[in-house]
Amino acid sequence: MTTSEPKRRVKVKDASDVIAGVVLFGFSVVLIFYLVPNYINEPPILQSPMMSPQWLPRIVGWLILVFSILLILQGLLVEGSNEEDERTIEKGSPRRFGLMVVALAIYVTLFEVMGAVFCGILATLILFVAHPVRTWWVYSLAFVFPIVVTFLFVEVMNVPLPMMPFWF
Amino acid sequence: MNKIINAAFSAVCGGVLALTVSVSSAVAQEWPTDDIRLVVPYAPGGTTDVLSRRVADLLQQELDANVVVENRPGAGSTVGTGRLARGGRDVDHTILMASPGHTIGAAIYPDLGYDPVEDFVFLQNMIDIPNVMVVPADSPYESVIEFVEAAKEENMTFSHSGVGSSIHMSGELFKTLTDTNMTAVPFAGSGAALPALLGGDVDVSFENMPTVLSHIRSGDLRALAVTSAERSEYLPDVPTLSEIGEYNLDQFVTTAWFGLVAHKSFPEEAQSVMQDALARVMEREEFLDFAEQLGAEPGQVSGEEFKQFIADEVERWEDVAQQAGISQ
Amino acid sequence: MENFSEVIEIFFSLDNFLAIAIGVVIGVVIGSIPGLTATMAVALALPFTFSMQPVAAILLLVGIYKGGMYGGSITAILIRTPGSPASACTLLDGYPMAQQGHAKKALKTALYSSVIADFISNIALIFFAAYLAKIALNFGAPEFFWLICFSLTIIISLASGSMIKGLMAALLGILLSMVGLDDVFGSQRLTFGSYNLMDSISFIPLLIGLFAIPEIIEFYRKKAIPHIKAKASGAGLAFSELKRCMKSIVRGSLIGVIIGAIPGTGATAAAFISYSDARRRSPNKANFGKGEVEGVAAAEAGNNGVAGATMIPLLSLGIPGDVITAIILGAFMIHGLTPGPLMFQENLSLIYALFMGIMFSSVVLLVVGNVAIKYFSLIADIPKSILFPIVLMFCVYGAYAVNNDTFDVGLMLAFGVLGYVFNRAAIPAAPFLIGFILGPMFEDNLRRSLLIGSNDLSIFVRGPITWFFIVLTVGSILLAIYRYLSTRRELRAGTGTGDEAP
């Protein structure tokens, strides 16, 4: 997303706005002409068009369409203001980012299967390694927190979390 | 804590002696051998939840086992119910508090993925809450007959607490039976629906008794009829709809029922233990007091009778939903 | 006042004080854990109240409610994880403040404005309950519709930076809020046959995903920077600053009281209305959203002003305004009490004992809050490399706990990615949230009005309340357009010279 090199002299003033605008334009077209008619059932008898379940989604769809065009125009014509500076970040190593993605994936895919404690420990460890945290005792927190918090949730507050399959 | 020690102990034994032993020992032991999960298919705080927590508390004392309440809300109770129907590992220690959503849900949701009757065993109907047909205090209608006659002439609006609630379906049933002009006005829960009724924005509602009882007593609402088979002891002067005798209303008997069900593979031994315990719970002073606070009558049916009742309900609501055009 | 002694007798029992204290502590602690909400805490505490005296039982629940309302703001400020939707507004300025090393100041501001708002709200409950209850009854669907329209206009003032992006975010929020079963016909909308989507998208996963997860993603996307060892908890709140915020706090509290007295609107709308009002009036408007004390104060005043006022429709009409008061209503009924007009006749001394307890709970909140701040502000000193993995774990557990469903964990992470994309594209998340909350209310009340009025549009102008909000709405839009145009003119003049500089 941060590909807009400041040196390159192009007509486009704010590339990411244009991209966002185009994406949203495409989305709104799909919404209005495909999703709304196919995935929202309309009852056969309606006293007023405003009563239809499709009414507001349609209006929102058209408004998104209009605003996405405005966004594209804004990106093409209006000079990006100083907020641009906040958007550019210094990217870290792909390994760091990749490990975070792995940690998130663990939570999504293994949470029900392997239980809250297991996933908590594993993902926290991975995130510590990703940073990397160099203080060795911190790694023990990756074990303490998931176990203690799970115990609190399940036993004290009676909020069930998935347990490991062999934890009958 | 006991449970953890137990679990550790049986894990050690089981590890050495293989699974068969622990299975057979589980059979030999009196049911329940573990914590019992009481699934509430609604969010915390509603009638179903409050009732379930009360029942869990009493059941715990009768059964000498932990009863843990677990909320699995979603899609008018069908999410939690569907999950139970699909089974799972501790299905022999799981019970569910079913309510009208169980039968109405079957009528209005497409492909539930389970059979609301055949996939369950029916333990005990805990309480029945009648609905009350109420009109605002300044409404010109003093009786059901007057109301029906007026509704044949002009369009009436009735408020309800959400599509597929027993309040909504009662209204639709009334409309179908009496063949009147009525428009359903949906609200997000009874709490939101009540001001519209009190303020006279809608003409009538078929609210649950506990929601409107105090307003009837204070004179802010007028009760025209109750929907149960017999008059309610809380409103002895108010006739039942079936008493009216005209406009097919003799067929109008419906209550918001709440009862415990379990998965169809729930062991038979467990069923009898459970039914005995529940019968004892229902005799307890605390339970009867609680039911009174809700304006409810203790449930009448259990076992096969309960099952038959559910089967009839499913059929009835399917008809109503179809005629009202809300079945998808 | 013949039953004065009776009131004293009912109120002054150790049980009551214990109940309030325990309630507030539980509320603050649970409210401050991401994903665990005051609603959940109240529901879980309910069975324990079965065996208690009625007054103590209700006060325990009220204590949890109030503690939870404040507790939610702690995590909002410290780790950008709103404990409740209402505290999402607090994080707009609270989190930047914590990042600048003013965590303690932000927490104290939140606490003091919460307590003051709570106090004002309780006064309103005690003295104006009957009057405010009348407003609630005159508030039908058309009145609601215009109130929502007015609330939607605050999106314009919240859209910092680009108006187009702000409105776009709001539209996307409205669109997502429509996923689920249609309220009138029960037909499915954009659920694609998924049962998890039928009850519409769960709120807590959306909140956590939208605000907390993008921070975490961004942290790991960025290059590792060494933790700057500073006493990040920083200084407390100076009296002069509190004085400066006082007007916003009082105004926010009153907004909260009005909104709270109308069943079904909720603390979130109050917080955002109060916030945007404070911003509109503030001399340092530009600092809002970047760590402005007054922003925190206004948001917290708005949402806590609601707390006492939601008891108004509950006690005087027997109408619960939100889920928590619905549970409290349940607690009343379990103890053989039915809130409503009759209770004021039959159990007056009990009601006054309750009022005293509710007033007392504000004091307890102040004490407990101060202690909590002392320890919680230490969280701001923990390096992010250690804090964030643990925060993520809490977020996942919390998202799961809402519905006991892994689907919500996935949903939360999906919203995390969306929130991250929003950050990158400089699309503000707050309008998205407002759109998500107000969208369904807008549609429902529009259709409800049409149903009640049999499609006669004149119902939308049926009384003084509707006109009042129509004027407010139109005025708010005109003001926004005027402001937009004038800042545009200024900006053009400003950037003109700015371009010459390099």
From TrEMBL, chain A:
UniProt KW keywords: Membrane, Transmembrane, Transmembrane helix
Domain DUF1468 span(s) in chain numbering: 19-162
Pfam hit, one: TctB
Top-level taxonomic group: Bacteria
Residue spans crossing the bilayer: 18-39, 59-78, 99-130, 136-154
Protein name: Putative tricarboxylic transport membrane protein
Naturally occurring in which organism (per UniProt): Halomonas korlensis
From TrEMBL, chain B:
SUPFAM superfamilies cross-referenced by the UniProt entry: Periplasmic binding protein-like II
UniProt keyword list: Receptor, Signal
InterPro entries the record matches: BUG (IPR005064), Bug_dom1 (IPR042100)
Domain of life assignment: Bacteria
Source organism phylogeny: Bacteria, Pseudomonadati, Pseudomonadota, Gammaproteobacteria, Oceanospirillales
Listed Pfam families: TctC
Residues making up the signal peptide according to the UniProt record: 1-28
Keyword Repeat belongs to the record: no
Coiled-coil blocks: none
Protein name as catalogued: Tripartite-type tricarboxylate transporter, receptor component TctC
Entry's family note: Belongs to the UPF0065 (bug) family.
From TrEMBL, chain C:
Pfam families per UniProt: TctA (PF01970)
Keyword vocabulary terms for this entry: Membrane, Transmembrane, Transmembrane helix
Signal peptide coordinates: none
Residue spans crossing the bilayer: 12-33, 110-132, 144-160, 167-186, 192-213, 253-275, 317-338, 350-373, 385-402, 409-439, 459-482
Domain of life: Bacteria
Keyword Transmembrane helix belongs to the record: yes
Annotated DUF112 domain residues: 18-433
Name of protein: Putative tricarboxylic transport membrane protein
Species of the source: Halomonas korlensis
Phylogenetic classification of the source organism: Bacteria, Pseudomonadati, Pseudomonadota, Gammaproteobacteria, Oceanospirillales
